Amino acid sequence: MARVPAIAATVLSRIRKSPRTLARHYRARRPQPAVELVRQPHPWPRALGLAAVVLLGAWLGLLVVGNVRVPVGPMNTTMTLRPSVSGGTKINISPLGALQLNSHQAPLRLDVNVDQLDPVRAQALVDHPERLSGLQDEVVHDVEHGTLDVALRSCVAVVSGATVLGLAVYRRPRRALAAGGTALALLMACGASVYATWNPESVLEPKYSGLLSSAPSLVGNARNIVTEFDVYQKELARLVTNVTKLYDVTSTLPAYQPDPTTVRVLHVSDIHLNPASWKIIASLVDQYKVNVIVDTGDTMDHGSAAENGFLDPIADLGAPYVWVRGNHDSNITQRYLQRMKNVHVLDDGRAETIAGLRFAGIGDPQFTPDRSKVLGAAQSEELAGARLAAALNDHKNAGTPVDVAMAHEPSAARRVDGEVPLVLCGHLHHEGDEILPHGTRLRMEGSTGGSGLRALEHRYPAPIEASILYFDRDTRRLQAWDAIKLGGLGLTTAEVSRHLPKENQP
């Protein structure tokens, strides 16, 4: 019985122990959580992911919302901003083709699609031709209103698209707002780039494609090239007016109106026995009312007597033919051409005046129909160029300066720098233009024969290239040129690009 009070005393003593002691006891027995090191994410992947979300969201926003239907004069158009590497402005006029302008440098391109002609407004212009005089102001107002509208809508579309996609991806409002803010900053940077690089004179060098490429009347003549196209709105008004007239008469594009103060020279080169070239040349002579055809060589491929019959269509081209020998043309070829009427063969610096312009040229000193490389070829070309330069200097001292020099190889053509305003060449099968150190302009023509049979050696066929050179009849200086490029074998594309010498630009 004595043990019962002892046990009770023990229990009571334990109950009297401090709760703090009990807490330490149970904490010691409870298992502690394991400590692990968590690797923090790297900031670069997160930034790249945000950038991808912003760009994709902005692009989707532009696709969904970023276009505006705007009436421009009698036309119903759609204006759209699209992502682009090169920027610029593209005007699509279906089914006539397109007009491209290098108006700005930014990752955004303005597309203007002419959807249809409004019959009511077009008929009003037909019934009241006096309204055409006020069409320009109307078009300017419509374009300004449409451009502002598409800019505002695109801004909303870009920010909304980036924000919505950010919310869908991250599921956090803060990250979604960050995506929207980044998109807005990106759009503002693009707008600043457009403002800084805006070029209102880009209409001076348009690029036409489709049926519009066969409408030189839209471009004008050498006398009014500089003064007529001063701002973008005026050109668009003129384009709308011409297209309205085109729909009215339901006929082909307006014919070219020749200017008596302009001499038009067709520059061809490196035909290389392509019979299709003669039909193209004849078409260009008729369409552009060409006064002179200039051929800078390699008309043949092997220069044999059996090939001479290929040259017979030259007599029916409808314009004087000025020719210099290329490295694929033989002396047999040259003698055959010298016997043809209306053909002017230039060699050894001899000069002739044709259609008011004085030409001089020299034949290629090499004859390499097999494309072999002859030892000392570069020196012979430079020597030929030096002979041509000496002849040009003699003509200048005699009071009969030459306006246009001709050679086949560019290396020979460069030797006449400072002796003549313009020198023409070919040989390399691609178009080029440069101002030489002493002020002479070198114009290199591509292959008007599409490189001949060599077009089959490459994956893509070479284009057929030629140029229309516009000269002022009084000063005999180059005013502008149209670079014409046709698709090669099996292709049907056509482009005409207008170019102006810098000294002629306002």
UniProtKB/TrEMBL annotation:
Swiss-Prot/TrEMBL keywords: Hydrolase, Membrane, Metal-binding, Transmembrane, Transmembrane helix
GO cellular component annotations of the record: membrane
One GO process term, biological-process aspect: lipid A biosynthetic process
InterPro entries listed in its UniProt record: Calcineurin-like_PHP, Metallo-depent_PP-like, Metallophosphoesterase_sf
GO molecular-function term, one example from the UniProt record: metal ion binding
SUPFAM superfamilies: Metallo-dependent phosphatases (SSF56300)
Membrane-spanning residues: 47-66, 150-170, 177-198
Residue stretches making up the Calcineurin-like phosphoesterase domain: 264-430
UniProt-listed PANTHER family: PHOSPHODIESTERASE YAEI, TRANSMEMBRANE PROTEIN WITH METALLOPHOSPHOESTERASE DOMAIN-RELATED
Protein name: Metallophosphoesterase
